[in-house]
Fold these 4 entries.
Entry 1:
Amino acid sequence: MVTCSADGYVSALGLPSLSLSGTLSPGIGNLTNLQSVLLQNNTISGPIPDTIGKLEKLQTLDVSNNLFTGEIPTSLGALQNLNYLRLNNNSLTGSCPESLSNIEGLTLVDLSYNNLSGTIPKISARTFKVVGNPLICGPKAGDNCSAVFPEPLSLPPDDSGTNGHHVVVAFGASFGAAFFVILLIGLFFWWRYRHNQQIFFDVNDQYDPDVRLGHLKRYTFKELRAATDHFNSKNILGRGGFGIVYKGCLNDGNLVAVKRLKDFNIAGGEIQFQTEVETISLAVHRNLLRLSGFCSTENERLLVYPYMPNGSVASRLRDHINSRPALDWTRRKRIALGTARGLLYLHEQCDPKIIHRDVKAANILLDEDFEAVVGDFGLAKLLDHRDSHVTTAVRGTVGHIAPEYLSTGQSSEKTDVFGFGILLLELITGQRALDFGRAANQKGVMLDWVKKLHHEGKLNLLVDKDLMGNFDEVELEEMVQVALLCTQFNPSHRPKMCEVLRMLEGDGLAEKWEASQKVETPRFRSLENPPQRYLDFIEESSLVVEAMELSGPR
């Protein structure tokens, strides 16, 4: 959970929800290249070290839901690159440091549920929460303040857990407040009437391109159009349901991948788009593709990522280097482990958690060292945010969609686990699940074929012929077992990603496999007689399946 930069310095500590105790060492101040510290949901106690103020590059500091005591260090005011500060749900005392008002780029400051006192300085954060501090807000949560927005007329954040945005504005008289609200509503509807569309903020006209949303850079459409040579078809890296991905070269010479979203006009408009983009950008892990920038205009939505020189797993499975497969057995094992670590982070260490919904070889990218990088996470939510966990049409790639998703339209972390199991089979066989079955000797879908050969003890027939027998038979058996555990029809029987990772690392597989052999095929709510084959789920799906790929390789 420690991320290092290319030049060998520690750039991120991602250690949330690991039951860590003890105190936070002042030595953290020596890690001067840290950009992200995520220690939430542990039992760390003692004071927050003053030395954190030395971390000039720090962008995210989250120590929420711990047992920290003492005062908030005034040294935090020196962190000029800080975007997100979460100190909520601790036992901090004293006043909120005036020095925090010196930080200009803050997006979120959450000091709620502590024992803070005194006056609140003017902090220029888009969201500033202090609820649950009795000496500030009153003895009951929300008596005098539920949240403070120092700039209430700037772009407000989305809060999916409420019915709207609640901004507390103090006025001298209630009549004045009511009049002001009515005036705002009138202006809003006048604007909507004049434009007859959602409110957009055109980055070309209103945004300074050097201004950032958190750590994300806002690009102008003109800038990205030039980088991709006017979105030249020669620069296309991949196509998919989300849009087209282009290779681009920025003015500074950096190579990027520019995803031009197809469904740009999502409900919720610009504010919702920015909120979702910010949420995606907070996921920082070595095995996740980090969003580096975006562009949003009235007619365009584009996302900018680092360019992955080795493309996707799907694109390299059939490639050869000096007459040898680009992905040998060792690299395929590393890809499985790296992907598992990335998905584990999304499921159990992100806040809020992110369900990928389209785990497959085409969405696992490879960096210059052939390290697995999970791409396109969060995009299904970004473009389909009106739904929570139920959809009326299944989004995904046929051959990768979990049975319960096909039967009920409901997705969860276990939907991703199923997709990961199919990914393991893609790594073993060298074939894409979507293409499988087109050959004359292959009937049905990959999963059913693998189950049949495993039952017959003919696993050697599964292995990619390009490997020319260069694989470990014991590791093959273990990887197939993990894949079959991940693709059990009943989602409750599938392991969590933390268990999947442990099994891939050699811990607990035998016990899990033995237990799985005693489990009967489940009954689904929508199917009185559940099929024994995965192909039957596809054929009997009660929902409209969009037989498409949500994304493609870069």
Note: Residues 21 and 44 are 4 Å apart (CA to CA).
Entry 2:
Amino acid sequence: MPPNSLYIRILSENIRETIHNCQPKLEVSHLQVITYLWPKCKNKQKLLQIQAQLITTGLIQNPPIASKLIASFASSSLPTTISIAHSIGTRVEGLDTFTWNTIIRGYLDRSNAKQALLVYSHVRSIGLNVDSYSLQFVIKACGLISAVLEGKQIHAQKCKLGFSSEVIVQTALMDMYNLFGELVFAQQVFDETPQRDTVMWNSVLALYAQHNLAHEALVYARAMAYSGLRLNGVSVVSVLSACSSLKALREGKVVHGYLIRHLTDIDILVYNTLIDMYSKCGSLWNAHQIFRVMPIKNVVSWTSMINAYSYSNLFNEGLALFQEMEGENVRPDEVTMLSIVSICSKLGSFELGDWIDHYMEKNELKVRSTTMSNALMDMYAKCGNIEKACKVFDWMIKKTLVSWTTIIHGLAMHGYAIPALLRFSQMQREGFKPDGVVFLSILSACSHAGLADEGRKCFNSMIQDYHMKPGREHYGCMIDLLCRGGLVNEAFEFVQSMPEKPDMIVWRMLVGACRNQGDISLADEISSHLHEMRPKSSEDYGLLSNTYAVAGQWVRVNEIRKEMKIKGFMKLDPGCSSIETLKI
């Protein structure tokens, strides 16, 4: 007898003796003993002993018994037991569809979608009929591994097998096409389903809400209500997300009222979505009221409210709420810290940047994703600590285009043109294709450093090497670069060759350069262009006046100033600046 059946043998003898004493005439079989012991087998080792006993007695070939053993292995939480269940299934003839569905589902529960597909193919190859659960499981498997071709084949099989009216199969197909981004096919499945339940309606709402088709999501929400079905918590989350995207405050309030009237037990997810909807629709007061009346708050609730303050530019209030969150012993997650880092970036305070660095180190939040590293780089750069931003960039294991863009922009913002150009070259060598934002940062760096030749090369590379069309900002940077380099005539020619008509900002840069270079004749020529622009603000009138003053045309200066008084253009708000003093 195999060693692993020792447990079975000892217990079998005890059970036989007990049954014999109670009922002497009863013949006790192996099957009765195993059936008695089966519920007591709670781990893999004891299940293996049961399997060994079934093999030695030949009962393993009994399909009902084998099915029960397969179900026991498949339902185990251990990852290896599903392979044992599959192995038993391949060695026993006559297993039914339910048993094979158990194996397919076991692989799905262990995130092994590819193997689930292979088992389904085996079931089809041996000629066994599949049911709606088989199709549901295999469709889910296709969605998990983005098996588009196989998913469409299963769709065709479903139609041939006559399962088009099965709601669970149709809903699984919609979810699969949602994962593929195939909205047309998902819509087709929905339209072809004669009877739709709440789950299927929820799927179509999520489909459009998740793909930024908020208007369509609201349309289907109304259609769902007209069909006689009530929206549940899942439906409401999708509809509120659509309202957030559209900034549809009125519709969001209607959904909120529906919740109060029809849902007695509101889920915390719904509360969090309500806060997000009100904050994005600009109704901070409502978001705050929802947050305060919530019976239970999780980290998502606190983060949503912090983001609500950030959306309303109430950054100090957001930081105060974060401190309140700490007082409630709610540990922040990465999303929370991203919100706080973003607030510190917008405030641009060196002290806050230093505080967040110490906070993350103190709370062991230094292990961070690429997204967090990008946010920290941006914060350090905007708070004046470019050295720390460079360290974060150098420590990053995985860099994205956003990472390169952030560090190049930070270096350019601090006037480090040469390091920015070096990072730009390194980025290209590592195979990253620069976008318009990167080129704008590089041109800005060259402009502030007076690197006219390098700026020209980058601008030409943008057009010739990467076949990109420069925007108004890129042209503005090139004009500023040429003007700062004293190349006013070249800048004027560049302006005249622009595909778009230059605006007042462009002419202002040229006039400022003419004044600095003392080129009165060119300033006078530019003034005619300024006059044609028909100035709309006091700044534009002031520029015209100063231009004529530089050219010595005092009569025209007086005319401009009189026109300003007649039209009521007066500069009422003076400019202001602020600096942060640090204690050393």
Note: The two ends are 82 Å apart (CA to CA).
Entry 3:
Amino acid sequence: MAQKKYLISKLTSCLREDKIQLWKPPYTNENKEAGKEMKELVQKYSSKLSISENDTENMLEEIRCKAIERGTGNEHFRVTGIARLDIYLPRRKSRKVPLETNLFITGKELRSQIAQEHALQENAIKIIINKKQLDLGRTLENQGITHNAKVMVLQLEQSDEETKRKVQEEELQHKKEKEINEKMQRTKKGLEILAEREEYLDPDSVPYLDIANQTGRAIEIPHQAKKALVLAMGYHEKGRALMKKKEYEIALPYLLDADKHFCECSTELLNTVDNYAVLQLDIVWCYFRLEQLDCLDDAEKKLSTAHRCFQRCYGENHERLIDIKASCLYEELSVDPDKVDCLSLLGFSEQEARLALRACHGNVEHAANLITNRREEKAQIRREERAKRRKRLEDINTLKSMGYSERAAQIALHNTQGNLDQAFKFILDNPELLLEDDDDDPVAMEQFQVSQESIDQLMYMGFSRESAEQALKVFKGNVHLASQTLAHYGGLLPASLQLSPAGSSPSEESTSSKDSSTESAGSSGSPTDEDMENDAVNEILEDIPEHEEDYLDLTLEEEKQIIHEYLSYIQVPQQ
């Protein structure tokens, strides 16, 4: 058997050197039978390799049949996408067996299929392909596995419990990492939607996400800076929500992403809010709870950063904190449960009660007044913000009543800081916004049937027939938009909207080089995309606390327990 394999290998090398393809004519006819020319090859290689003609003929026929089989398999793969894998099983008489599958299944699915078909214990086998261990979480295609790939199946010893345990742990860790990555992608999507579109959301149906200072007043900041800050604060809140569940390992990546986005904000902006300092403390707390000793140096840097940030926000002696929060820096953090109950009976939440009692040194009457005042202040701020948002919606509806799309109205008002007159001019100065859809087909525009009545209307206004007809095709028969645009541009469509004789315009350059804010603010997907976007946004909103000082509402029980534990380590035993 070994000698035969060696001789077949030699024959295959000779065929390759002579560039002979046995599966093609003249060596194989249309019925896939051996051609007459095969006899010449038998004589040639029998003499060259000193093998009998009978053995040479048998081996060449075996090579030819396998080549035809591979060729048939290749054609089958091209047509159906079903690949053939050669599976090499452990300790079997027939170690090499074929397996047909598509390449879009995951490594875990392939392992399950092999285990089921060959009575193997799934968690007790390891699979090697292309000299690499199979990644259970990725598809075969993504791992570079192709048709005719060789798959080596290794069986872990049943007694090797440690090895099997490690394999299982690796699988669980990979699954966890995959889930975290998917959740982080959804979080990012939801935050980007909020950062771009929140100012146009319905104030009566959608919670409002805004950037406010310590007094609760919205901060006016540039759009790009606001986007970075919303992303940073959103990741921070998601991380904090996970910290509350004590899921520190999952929370840490969110917090580190928040840190990255905060670094994109200006120093002046970071000095206005204390979120960045609080984030540093949260990251250090995660390091501590996860016992990541290798992060000690980074933890020290983050604590120093938090200290400097708090000083910049509140002053060297926290004087601004006293002005804003009506107290010193919470000298007494321990809260009497009876006083919390007392305030709860007055209709205040436990969170409000704890925060107010800390701010008022435990004085119940002062705490009640503080909560009431804060509620009134927040209600006033909320009314003002809702009024602003209603004004935005009214302006959008005004522009829509003039014939402009909601998308164009949103973009124009955004770029003109809400000035309605300037927004009207902005739309006309950026005519690509007048198109109903970024994906408008130029050929469809050219073929659009314009009514003679519409053309006559525009000609009556003084425009030429050619300009009138072209404008009506671009705006799909909308006489109002056509007349406004022609009037604004002196009777001719701007170059970015003109149709060429071949119907290859509006200019692709103008539509592809729009301002990034234009693209993001105006994107509109299919209903399915919209549902997915809504789910992503709602997932973010669930993690945003209603109370802006939620991060200060700590019961301190866990911290107290840890302090006692560490004090016990340094206590000197009595003699």
Note: The mean pLDDT is 76.
Entry 4:
Amino acid sequence: MSAHPQWDIKRALRVARLFHFVCGVRAACVMPFLTLYLSQLGLTAPLVGIIMGIKHLITAFWAPFGASLAKSFQKRRLVLLGSLLGSVGTSPLMILIPYVGKELEANTCDVVNNKMASTISPLGGAFTGNSTWASKSTSDLLTWVPSLAAQREMVETSSIQKGLANSSVQESSYFVGSTEDARNMTQVLQSTTSGVKEVTWQGALKMGSTETSLPTMGIAPTNTINLPATEQYTGALNISAEELRWAFIFALCFMMLWEMVAAPLDQVADDSLYEYLDFVDATYGYRSLWIWRLLGMSVGVCSTAALVGQLDCYLRSQGPSGVVYFYSYALVSILALLVSIAFPIPVFKQWEPSNKTLKALSLVGNSPHLILLAFTVVLVGAANSIVQNYLFWYMKKFGSSELVMGFSVALSLLGEILLYPLKTILLRNVSRMGTVGLGLVCLAGQLLYYAFTWSWWSVLPVQILSAISNGAFWWAVRASVEDMSTPVTERTLMTMFQSHFYGGGCSLGSFLGGFVMMRYDLPILFQMCTIILMVWLIFFLSILMKLPREHKISYSKLLVVEANDTSDSEQGMEQDWLVKAMEDDHFEWKG
């Protein structure tokens, strides 16, 4: 049957590998840097958390439901093409989100290219009172200082000099230096605002009586005032609350539309390929396709980050840096659209029992091991979402470039691939639930390490632990689900863990993480997550020791029972080679 063109397995696997690789590149073009782009628009941490939380909710529940609808109406090919084509049209909408500081952003690239040498030296002397300020890059300062003025008062260049001279005493807690340092700062501002409409210094920065709260950069002064975080942010930077509200509304609407279109793609492709291969008993190549996706993500995240520094100034006329993310995403989506035309999709309707989701939920409710595993997956999803949302903000605070951020993601992905040959040894020697606990320990260690990060490069060494905290963790979860589920509900149950439980945890972590950052700093948030994971690990191990050990279905015992019903010879049954082989397999799994 495999000789028939419809069942060309080798060709189907080649197309599937290419499709997963391209989709990995496509996802890595924008997703790791999405929250960084939202912060550059002026959105605070709680607003970014709400946007990302709703995004994860849509992915968790709409993707499986959309895939089920596509299968019921036999429209999988149409859904694949429509999802990719819709992504091309909806992703660039994020560039249209309104933001503050349009006057400065139009000329930032020219300033950085022409004035970099003359601005670095004054910055080092002007911000001697705070090491965080001293380490900020020139582009961050250019985005922060004149671009956030809401009064838009047009004055001459001399007004900036007067504003600096008059406010030097009031702002001594932020700008510590001599009179020469103030002159250097004046020269920096004059050089960066050439050809731009000038604004009054007092109108742009009202720091004398209001706290400067910069949640997007993780900077907070020592003299805090008990004000709501949003009022501190909008008041200190003089951003209109109306402008911030509209930017949030547009970002939320565009993100929801984009995710509704793009979410069903992976689930539809996954189900189609599995059914295509399962019909001819060729699922041996299905389990290794995730490697190609990780390779694509590693290539995509590094190449896109490298293009940002080279092409961003040429592609954007006005707006924050990062438009290259969305242009790259759209271009790779077009390439994936071409590959999806040849993607293997079965033309038959495979029979499956109804109410599989209800049966999977019933199986989880009746198994204490699966309940414990489900709560663990939710907590891991919450912790991972906090890292994905805000780690790049923390690296940006220390002056990290997008290329370093992309390299840190690639290290974690390549670590999973390199650990894969040791998968069987790890699961056999440590056990499945033991590997789950080991993943929790590594994830807690990563979060604790992030809390005490001291520079942009110090993040890189700990990324290798993601091979265990993410890769080995999910291998153990999948093996446990396969052993505790029936053949009918195996894939449905695994989809429930990956989509519903993990996606729900990511949504919960995004919501709570943003509001915790509104009250505390990011290192404190990482420390809180570490404590929660370690407390849950102790609870997880203590409960696991009291639960009866779960075993997979023993088909050898079923054969023995069936044989005893038809024959009274037990000695002959013990010599059955099939029973012995299955008993040996069960003993090896148990050991």
Note: The first helix runs from residue 9 to 30.
